[in-house]
Design brief:
Layout (H helix, E strand, L loop, with lengths): L10 H7 L15 H11 L7 E5 L17 E5 L1 E2 L7 E2 L2 E3 L5 E3 L7 H4 L22 H29 L7 H14 L3
Helix pairs in contact: 2-5
Amino acid sequence: MAGPSNEPDSRYDRWLRCAEKRCCVESTVHVTARDVATIARTISVPPWEFTFAEDASRGADDGFALDASARRYRLALRRTFFPGEAPHCTFLLRFASGAARCGLGDTRPGSCRVFPLAGRGGACTCAIASVARNDPADLVVLANVDADRNAYARIVAMWNAFVAQSDAAFELRDYCRFVLDAEYAAGR
């Protein structure tokens, strides 16, 4: 029988044990095309059912257009509102004991997998922020998430070029379909 490990807890281990998941309550989860395609495929629900378009800052590389105006949006996971509770990620599961878990598990978006290594805002009550940021596994996850964000920025640029050439106004559903098509065409 093995005794207690002297190895320090990883950031991921601490996050798994966190009962509160304040990070899922206090921040909006922005997603990439890969995140959207993976979640939609895993739960068999179209992305416009679990995402929303949030206003984006001017010049954001993930800011997509829905019409010819200068207004841009960012794709984010919907938030759930229950009376007496703070709004939280739609995939956050709360148990009678008060504990909370991510309903997406290993399918959770890249911004969640790298929290708090790469900014997303929100408070951390499980002290994962204090874990050393040089864990090789974290560096791999960060590199993968950066690659996903860069690929998503290219998809957004293609969409925005398409919208700029059209006189039509589009809906979130149209954008999500474009994102899924781009992801599937890329074989992801």
